[in-house]
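Chapter review: from sequence to fold.
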Amino acid sequence: MRIYCLVLMSLISSACLAQQSAPTSYEGVSAAPINFFAAGKTTILGQDYQLPIGNQLLITETIVIEPGQTTDIHSHKVPLYAFILSGELEVDYGSKGKKSFKAGSGFIEALNWCHAGKSVGNTPVNIIGMYIGTQAQPDLMKPVPCPKLN
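The token string follows.
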């Protein structure tokens, strides 16, 4: 649990320190920016996105996908920042191909595009997922089931 708190502190500080690449030290704690904005203003599939307007709501979850396990096919209606803590994730975007993500990588997930994730290798994939929505529409932050890949 302690590592998740440190990672979250680092994620939050990275939004403020996005221009810096070296770790910053304060109060005896080292915070190194994570490439939160590495994708720029686009999703992993190159889609433009904007943060929702209104009273924003940030829901952060730890997501664990066991070795060999595949998620159901789903899509996202709001921006989801995913940071891979451990393991290797392969995401099948159907007609857009497959992408692999290793520990230490982060990305903004595709919006309104059906896809499925799979844990490859012998260790579980541990992900911190941050859904960015609004207080007025919290249901939009849940993944939406899809019948097939796009």
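Two observations follow directly from the output. The radius of gyration is 16 Å. The chain has two domains: 1-34, 38-145.
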